[in-house]
Amino acid sequence: MNSYRHSVVLDVEKCTGCTTCVRHCPTEAIRINNGHAEINTDRCIDCGECIRVCPHKAKKAMCSKFEHYMHYKWKIALPAPALYGQFDGLDDVDSVLQGLKDIGFDDVYEVAKAAEVVSGYTRILLKSEAVKKPVISSACPVISRLISLRFPYLKDNILPMLPPMEIAAMEAKKKAKAEHPELKDDDIGVFFISPCAAKVSYIRNGYGDYKSNVDVVVSLSDIYFLLIGAMKKNITPQISSEAGMIGIGWASSGGESSAILNDSYLFADGIENCIQVLDSIENGNIPQIEFVELNACIGGCVGGVMTIENPFIAKTRLQTVRRYMPVSKNFIPSDISFVPESFITDSLPNYTPISRLSDSLSESMRMMAKIQEIRKGLPGIDCGACGAPTCRAFAEDIVRGQNNGRKCVVLEHTEDSVNCEGENDDS
Amino acid sequence: MSESLNFHFDVDGDNFVSAGQASVQVKKNLRRLGLPPEIIRQVSIALYEGEINMVIHAGGGEADINVYEDRIVIVLADKGPGIPDINLAMQEGYSTATENVRSLGFGAGMGLPNMKRYTDEMKIESEVGVGTTITMCVYLK
Question: How many CB pairs under 8 A join A and B?
């Protein structure tokens, strides 16, 4: 199995082995080994919870630095719409776009613009019989990976369309070549300004068989600090924004759903909520709906770990930004009834049953029985002090032979106190 | 003679909110056993419907899921009011749920029919005033 390349990195110096991330990881992918956190890459879904909760800032998302990629002759910035929610008092997207040019980009292609196109075509797809309902958004890479690892039954429900970021990258390259025929493929660098770690991994690994069109991923927070300076200087921004309310609405949870333009949708945010919703869909235990939008981060993309502002404040700011915008500028002709082939994808990572104990059922059953037996002897308080997230996970690690000598602190303590009492009795 | 693995759950009749928990837990365990997604879905839906039924009609009960190498057996036992007419209860859309329960989105009369649809065998033993035991079986091969 090809190992998935993740974007979460650990600063071993800063990690104290405190177990906070271990207990918050929704896929139980982290253990404390030799005093610091270790991520099981097969299980990690890049949700960024560990980065968010780490009290020592020992975890971060690995991104590229803009200044290291100056060799591209034509550098195009792809700002995620979440970027617009970071600035205090911003009422004109153009000043952000101009700022991006001022800090060294040759052109800007708004992901929000591509989002409008995706919304437009999603509405067309929902009318066709070819898609399995409810259609689940393909925009959050955490959700797509989670489905491939844990909800294989829902694989066919994923919107078979590339996410806005990919369509933006594709269109931006097309535009650059049309406007500057002298540019070669290698001259053009597409830089995605990412709010989250998951998109970094997505771009690095591709999506099933699909290879990303983005060349470099830079962190939204890095770009923010460069922009702040540049935006103060510019007085009359030149480029005009090409997105409408719908495209910018994608930055926060519910935005993509509302663009369906009917009330037959569900949206949820926060990874635990998303898992519960997926469980319910799998059990057939949800109302009849057409569309499901799931965002791993609370608040949606504005809640990504590489943003600056609190997601709810960012969302409110976006309301100001969107105020005088047209509803949509997707320019899809009204008589079109199909989606361009280049936007369609059915590439999804294959189902990898990560939690499976063994390939053979009888062996799995034997192991499970052993886990149950060990678990009975454990305190069951899931304190995490051993370095595993729960007593069950501790037992499972022992049976899988992955325990690495971790011990139950509570049991040891209890035994010690029994011994102490014994000594007291003797004296 | 094959070994079996047992998962036992007490389904709390007073707590509507927790109904469906056994189903989620069993789903996790079946994934760990590496069973095919379709089987996992069948078992979790049948168990979910059964759990809800026990909470709505019987004030709770007990759920036992036994995994054998060739089949999964789900036993749901309660000490509720019992089912007077099983044939009637098996009809799609027939429900004795209260208005209260229906307002929560349950009681559509699809519980027992769904349990039958998603399992390979189903047996209902019920005595009015004593309780109901439902045994369902999903084949693995």
Answer: 60
